[in-house]
Amino acid sequence: MTAQKRPRYAAKLERVLVDEAALAARVSQLGEQISADYQERELLLICILRGGVIFLTDLMRHISIPHAIDFMAVESYGSGARQSTGTVKITMDLRIDIKDRNVLLVEDIVDSGRTLSHVLDLLSTRSPESLSVCCLLDKKARREVGVPIDYTGFEIPDEYVFGYGLDLDELWRNLPFVGVAKD
Ligand code: 5GP
């Protein structure tokens, strides 16, 4: 009998933190909640690339009201590094003018809060009708800058995670779960 091959990510994975079923259930709840809250308004979802992309595409399929989407790319960590550099750079801006729009930012994870704070400051200068935040994962214990979060998927401990859109050294964004990386 041949030994079962371990998946290649196994050497990097400490443990699964949020499994596929829990993600699906929570994302569906968030979609329903957002649909109810924005019932009378036209919604614009803004996804922060690249980590938020899987969350956005799952979330929007649970939002039953009409909505547009747009993307913004932000770099807050040096490539491959696991520590925040403290600097935030917009590397790709929106295509859509958000003036008078109801904007919901879709983020993968809020850690120190610097990235979100920077993006919120920038977007508020463009006079949206409303500006709210939906993040999948919140590492509250690491917060350095206070940021308003309207919808949270899961509060998680201070550990480096990957999968479901989040990278580990630019890889493994495709994993269907959120896992804790080995040191
Ligand atoms: P903040 O500016 O809040 O410190 O960091 C936010 C950004 O850092 C996230 O959008 C994400 O790109 C990255 N980040 C923070 N914590 C983690 C983590 O545990 N895993 C991964 N893959 N990225 C993280």
Q: Could you characterize what this model shows?
A:
By secondary structure, the protein is α/β, with parallel strands linked by helices. It has helices at 20-37, 53-60, 114-124; strands at residues 13-18, 43-49, 67-77, 84-92, 102-110, 130-138, 151-155, 161-162, 178-181. The protein has a 6-stranded mixed beta sheet with strand order 4-3-2-5-6-7, sandwiched between helices. The protein has a 3-stranded antiparallel beta sheet with strand order 1-9-8, with helices on one face. Helix 1 packs across helix 2. It starts with 12 loop residues before the first strand and ends with a strand. The mean pLDDT is 93. The structure holds guanosine-5'-monophosphate. Guanosine-5'-monophosphate binds next to strand 3, strand 5, helix 3 and strand 8. Guanosine-5'-monophosphate (5GP) binds next to strand 3, strand 5, helix 3 and strand 8.
Blueprint of the fold:
Elements: E1 13-18, H1 20-37, E2 43-49, H2 53-60, E3 67-77, E4 84-92, E5 102-110, H3 114-124, E6 130-138, E7 151-155, E8 161-162, E9 178-181
Parallel strand pairs: 2-3, 2-5, 5-6, 6-7
Antiparallel strand pairs: 1-9, 3-4, 8-9
Helix pairs in contact: 1-2
What overall form do the CA principal axes indicate?
Answer: globular
- Cα-atom radius of gyration: 17 Å
Per DSSP, what share of the residues sits in E-state strands of 2 or more residues?
25-35%
Q: Helix proportion of residues, in percent?
A: 10-25%
Oligomeric composition of the shown chains: single chain
For the sheet with most strands, the description reads: 6 strands, mixed
- Can you count the beta strands? 9
Give the mean pLDDT: 93
Unreliable stretches (pLDDT < 50, length at least 5) are none
